[in-house]
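User: My collaborator and I are trying to settle a disagreement about how two of our proteins should look. Neither of us wants to argue from intuition anymore, so we agreed to look at predicted structures for both before our next call. Could you fold the first one, then the second, and keep them clearly separated?

Assistant: That sounds like a sensible way to settle it. I'll keep them separate. The first protein:
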Amino acid sequence: MRPARLVMAGLSLVLVAGCAAQPMTRERAARLCADEAREADGISGTLRAGVGSEGAVGGGSLRITSAILDPQSEADALQACITRRMSGDNRPPRRPGFSIAIEGDFQ
């Protein structure tokens, strides 16, 4: 066997091993669930501002979902998400309803 083939085979095994599924821990589940928990009350958004070469710039976004009709505390949503992920269910929760997003920039 050529040395180049041996090296390529070794690299392939290392890459495949690196792609193996990571075990779910409470800490990893909490990191993955943080964004979902922040949106549990149905309202989320961002605001950005700065100064560029053409003066002040900024913008923002506001997202309102149907969760606003049945809000959950961030702590309750985080706990529910962690429990769901620890049981092996990695799908996001399905909530019927609507989502409205408003985005804009200003100069």
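The second protein, kept apart from the first:
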Amino acid sequence: MKRIVDRISWMAAGFLAANILVFCVMFRRPKVRWEQDRYDCAIVCGCRVEDDGTPSDTLKARVEKAVELWKARKVQYLIMSGAAVHNDFIEAEAMKRYAVELGVPAEYILKEKRAVSTYHNLKYSGEIMQNCNFRDCVVVTSGWHLRKADHYARQNVKRYVMAAADRSGKEKAGRSIWLHIRTNLHMYVNMWRGYY
């Protein structure tokens, strides 16, 4: 019996190691090293808007990071990306309102209102970049979401760097770890389903 348990343990360990290796090959570490001082735009990945139309804490943190980059003249324009996913409020519109409240003039903010997923955030924002002749961008999202957004940025924009928003004050460390794990598992499952 012990021999069978040992074999099963080794097989499980081998299976887990193989899956981790496949994951690391398919979904590389996010590109966070800046190659230039300034980028044409920032693509801000959408997230939940509250039922009263205000951005969630996670969404606020992403917009605040983008505004910080704009004020530091690291990016010239902001592309707010997100449709009405969780309720009737369009994420891109809530993001733009918040960015304007934080001091960014409306003419420097573009809205992408079709995206219902991370893949669509980068796909449709990449199309906006092409239409506006933007050559490069900073993709702004949460730290736990960087690897997923990086994977789709690699497919949809030529030159980019990733930037992590600060963790919102209400987000506990345990929740952040859980979000990392959940997002990575979701990516891996999607890969096997053919959505990568």
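Some points you might bring to the call about the second protein. The chain has one domain: 39-193. The mean pLDDT is 88.
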